[in-house]
């Protein structure tokens, strides 16, 4: 496993043949397709459980909502960027689609190179926006005691013992805390969670991962990744030496 993590793409397309073809193209380009949905309602459920980096959204969908309506909800609720796929190039559709603030439009049929370039530009824009976001110094999503965190989960403050945390994972402006029993999704960046965890037992091994050093089961021969239970977590090149030093201290 390398330091680079494949960007996650969700396909929302009502024609499964087209969706399967695009999915194959995305995989060849190095993207991870986290799902293919034909309805906007199903796409919302997918994003709830497996948040992508970009949604490729057809404007015409089966179900109760069209792609524009689904994109508006995705932006408002999840802040996940949407790239529209459309065979409707008329001005009225374009103006309506603009209200969902898409990152780009791709007209069907399209060339593989057009898809590749559009996604690269969208990811570049996402990276620039992320770097320019202000650091959030405090949050009501997390509070700390000596041996536990209290995190907001489903309108409650839930106790999570530090000893139960396997690792924390960045998901753009969100953060996932993986425990032995379940995963919690918080609408705060990873650095906020990292600041709440004791540095003696938790260490950032990668820009997107902070691990509980006591939970590490194995480390690869060339120190490219470590294993925690059944999960493989990448180790960045700059962190390799520090990871080994910390493991020797535990």
Task: Tell me about this structure.
The protein is built from 7 helices and 16 strands. It is an alpha/beta fold and 250 residues long. The protein folds into 2 domains: 8-132, 3-Layer(aba) Sandwich (Rossmann fold); 162-249, OB fold (Dihydrolipoamide Acetyltransferase, E2P). The strands form 4 sheets. It has a 5-stranded parallel beta sheet with strand order 2-1-3-4-5, with helices on both faces. It has a 5-stranded antiparallel beta sheet with strand order 11-10-9-13-12. A hairpin with a 2-residue loop joins β6 (142-145) and β7. α2 (40-49) packs parallel to α3 (67-78). The two termini are 25 Å apart. The relative contact order is 0.10.
CATH topology type of the largest domain: Rossmann fold
Strand order of the largest sheet: 2-1-3-4-5
List low-confidence stretches: 135-140
**Main CATH class of the largest domain:** Alpha Beta
Distance between the termini: 25 Å
Number of strands: 16
DSSP helix fraction: 25-40%
| SS field, number of helical segments | 7
Number of spatially distinct domains: 2
Order of helices and strands: EHEHEHEHEHEEEEEEHEEEEEH
Radius of gyration: 20 Å
* CATH architecture term of the largest domain: 3-Layer(aba) Sandwich
Give the overall shape, derived from the CA principal axes: elongated
The chain-level mean pLDDT equals 86
Task: Classify the beta-strand content into a percent band.
Answer: 25-35%
> How would you classify the helix and strand content by structural class?
alpha/beta
What does the main sheet amount to? 5 strands, parallel
Assembly state here? single chain
Q: Could you name the CATH homologous superfamily of the largest domain?
A: Response regulator
């Amino acid at each position: 496993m390398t330091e680079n993590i494949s960007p996650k793409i969700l396909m929302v397309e009502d024609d499964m043949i087209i969706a399967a073809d695009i999915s194959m193209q995305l995989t060849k380009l190095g993207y991870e397709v986290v799902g293919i949905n034909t309805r906007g309602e199903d796409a919302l459920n997918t994003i709830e459980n497996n948040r992508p980096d970009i949604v490729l959204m057809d404007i015409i969908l089966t179900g109760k909502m069209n792609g524009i309506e689904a994109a508006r909800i995705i932006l408002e609720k999840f802040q996940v960027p949407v790239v529209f796929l459309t065979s409707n190039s008329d001005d009225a559709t374009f103006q309506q689609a603009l209200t969902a603030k898409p990152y780009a439009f791709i007209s069907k049929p399209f060339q593989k190179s057009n898809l590749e370039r559009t996604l690269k530009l969208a990811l570049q824009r996402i990276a620039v926006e992320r770097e320019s976001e202000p650091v959030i110094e405090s949050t009501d999503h997390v509070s700390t005691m000596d041996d536990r965190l209290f995190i907001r989960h489903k309108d409650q403050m839930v106790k999570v013992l530090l000893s139960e945390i396997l690792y924390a994972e960045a998901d753009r402006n969100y953060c996932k805390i993986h425990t032995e029993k379940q995963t919690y999704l918080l609408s705060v960046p990873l650095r906020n969670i990292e600041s709440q965890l004791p540095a003696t037992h938790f260490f950032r091994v990668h820009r997107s991962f902070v691990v509980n050093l006591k939970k590490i089961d194995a480390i690869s021969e060339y120190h490219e990744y470590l294993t925690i239970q059944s999960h493989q977590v990448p180790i960045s090149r700059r962190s390799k030496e520090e990871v080994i030093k910390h493991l020797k201290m535990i």
